[in-house]
Amino acid sequence: MDIHKVGSDTTVMADSLEIPGIGHLPINAYVIAAREPVVVDTGLSLPDRDFMATLGSVIDPAEVRWIWLTHPDRDHTGGIFDLLAAAPEARVVTTFIGAGIMTTERPLPMDRVYFVNPGQSLDVGDRVLHAFRPPLFDNPATVGFYDDRTRICFSSDCFGGPMPTQELAESGHANDLKPDDLRSSQLLWATLDSPWVHMVDEGKYRAWIAPLREMSAEIMLSTHLPPAVRMTHRMLDTITMAPGADPFVGPDQAALEQMLKTFEPGGMPAAT
Q1: Own/partner pairs for 112-121, CB < 8 Å, 24+ apart?
Q2: What pLDDT score was predicted for residue 72?
Q3: Can you tell me the distance from the alpha carbon of 100 to that of 97, in angstroms, rounded to the nearest whole number?
Q4: Cα pseudo-dihedral 2, 236, 131, 28, rounded to 10
């Protein structure tokens, strides 16, 4: 994982996964050094990842007061229970359905849950975090937020896009890609992660995007994209195109069998 700051007081804990045939998908979590410190998501649920060790290099976990779970998919919840144990005063910010989904694996302690719905806000001492439902999402519990002190928007999966290299996925910035390449990457992700976008009423979809234009965030932070600085309106133009983009069609069994022939024993791609 790579650790770097963005803005005045926000730290990116950047990880990634290689998706054969697609690229390296960023998997980001964040720490906001607010008066009441906030951790945004808790990394991958994989045995070779140590989210708590990474977090501990940024902040003493005992100081964390809020864990904003943008949604309860496994690439967002890897360290949540270890963090709850290490941060006895922290509460998990989620929704009713988010907490419900978590109970299918391991229930959250309900006395440590704090429900925030889209349209509501959370005061963390020196700023207010304004919750909203991103225009694109793959989980009905998804809630992003806007930090009104730093003008940073945390968009969960929305605006994501696979990168061509691990280095770019974990250490780069979105504007390291050429505009056309970034647009193609984000439209690929939009149609892969939110396939329902092809069925929306485009007028209602554009109206859903409009408040983000009015928000005019200085920095956009997605779980699945390197930090994007002063690119918000360009990226909004991109996702506005998603309903008309080509649908994503994944590999079929024949393609899987061909892919497996290139893998080493143990499931990793063979070296070239």
Answers
A1: 112/84, 114/66, 116/143, 117/143, 118/143
A2: 97
A3: 5
A4: -10
Contact at 8 Å (CB) between 174 and 186? no
C-alpha distances in angstroms, 119 versus 33, 134, 269? 23, 11, 44
Degrees (nearest 5) of the Cα angle 156, 159, 161? 105
3-class DSSP state of 146: strand
Q: How many degrees, rounded to 5, is the angle at CA 10 between CA 8 and CA 11?
A: 125
CB 65 within 8 A of CB 35: no
Whether the CB-CB separation of 114 and 56 falls below 8 Å is answered with: no
Beta bridge partners of 24: 18, 163
What pLDDT is recorded for position 15?
Answer: 97
pTM higher than 0.85: yes
Report whether 68 contacts 129 (CB < 8 A).
yes
Query: Which parts of the chain sit beneath pLDDT 70?
Result: 264-272
DSSP-assigned states of every residue in 52-70: HHHHHTTS-GGG--EEE-S
- Could you please report the per-residue DSSP string of 27-57? EEEEEE--SS-EEE------TT--HHHHHHT
The sheet carrying 23-32 orders its strands as 2-6, 10-19, 23-32, 38-40, 66-68, 91-94, 113-115
What is the C-alpha to C-alpha distance for residues 232 and 157, in angstroms, rounded to an integer?
15
Token code pair at residue 228: 């994007």
Contact 74/95 with Cβ under 8 angstroms? no
